[in-house]
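WARN retry 2 of 3 for item q-0093 after timeout on previous attempt; input resubmitted unchanged.
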Amino acid sequence: MITDSHCHLASSRFADDERGDIIERAVGAGVSRMVTLSTCLEDVPLNLKLAEHPNVMATIGILPCDVHNAPDDAVERLAAYAGDPRVCAIGETGLDYFHPAPDGWEETDFRNRQRDFLRQHFELAASSQLNIVIHTRDREGRGSFEDALEIYAPFSDRVRAVFHCFVSEWELAEKVISLGGLVSFGGVVTFKNADLVKEVIKRCPAGNFMLETDSPYLAPEPLRGKRNEPAYTMKVAQFAAMLRGETIEQLAAHTEATAEMFFRWRNDSA
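OK item q-0093 returned
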């Protein structure tokens, strides 16, 4: 009924012996498909293994906070997995100007490496005929968002990007949509102080957004502060439907159609 378009099932916050139960709880809650995101080369194999489950698909990418640990040819190595039927998109990639540069790195050099990796991910997405999942985060202002949009623009005729965990104002969502991209909403939309994103989800036209958990992070109310998991996508969906004045069935119909369009699903996926 609902797709969790962004979760991290390979996270160390989920124990090996409980991941199967986590997937089954999600399916039991009406979350019929889950997209598990890779964040580094090392977690690609586990994400692909998890995607052997018929309700799970995987992505391949390097998180911007990890580009300093990745070899220079990391995106070339990812390309070897792009044709795997378990892979449904490229990512998680993007720009993160929130966290400081790691030890031994100048801020300018670290951000330049993030931007270079993001371009490489877009090139891989275009050559693989896959869409891409973008992370942006700023400590102040919206530099990472604007820079990511600038990198996205030349690829927008070949690749669609989803800016996940969207928490900003309608003006920025509109910029993404004008390029043919999408935004995605998670548990933050349920937070009491999330007025900006609540207004965006009310205004966002059907067909231009998806739902997610970003689990194990950012659990929705009333579970805020606890470990998140894909089953809680239904809580996000219920809150979003209430904000938009839709039934859960109406919301599910158009967000599922959007997810179906955006991701490359396996024929045997639920």
